[in-house]
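chain below, 110 aa
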Amino acid sequence: MFNEIFARRLRLALEGACMSRYELAQAVNLTESAISRYLAGQRMPNGEVLIQIAHALNTTTDYLLGSDCGLDSETVYDQVLSHVQGFASVWSEKQRAELIRRIVSTAIEE
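prediction:
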């Protein structure tokens, strides 16, 4: 169960950071195959590696592990806004437009 949550959150964080498996592996001094195993839910990183991954992806270990699920909507909103603002300067116009499209699409579906 934790592996699945971690794998899904890691995938989302990688997308959000516009980072490849290779780039993440380089940032945290792991092999690309180790990152692939995390993404497949086959393995979990140890605590030190988890912290390095969270730092490299500009997120938290709580988010990656799914521990943030009990947060109130205001806290989640503040965290999402903080992440978006942190990445906005490195995203292309196309990436920013895609983010907006996905947010609107998700809001309409709900």
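The chain has two domains: 1-68, 71-110. Residues 71-110 form one domain.
thats it, cya
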